[in-house]
Amino acid sequence: MSKSIKLLAMLSVVAGLSACAQQEEEEYVVVDPEPISIEPVYTGKYK
Q: Which UniProt keywords apply (predicted)?
């Protein structure tokens, strides 16, 4: 194999290893949703 192919292969391996090593876990926040509407309350027949 020529030197340029070996150099290209070595650089691609180093780039792949560095890309895998820098992965961080993403932080996420779970927020409870607010109710959209309030349920009606019984107030009497004609109110």
A: Lipoprotein, Signal
In the structure encoding, which two tokens stand for residue 43, read together?
């107030």
**What tokens appear for 13 in the block?**
């391996």
Q: Which amino acid is at 3?
A: K
- Give the span between the Cα atoms of 10 and 38, in whole angstroms: 64
Give me 46's structure tokens. 């004609």
State residue 21's pLDDT score: 72
* DSSP 3-state of 9: helix
The two counts, helices (H) then strands (E), for the chain are 1, 0
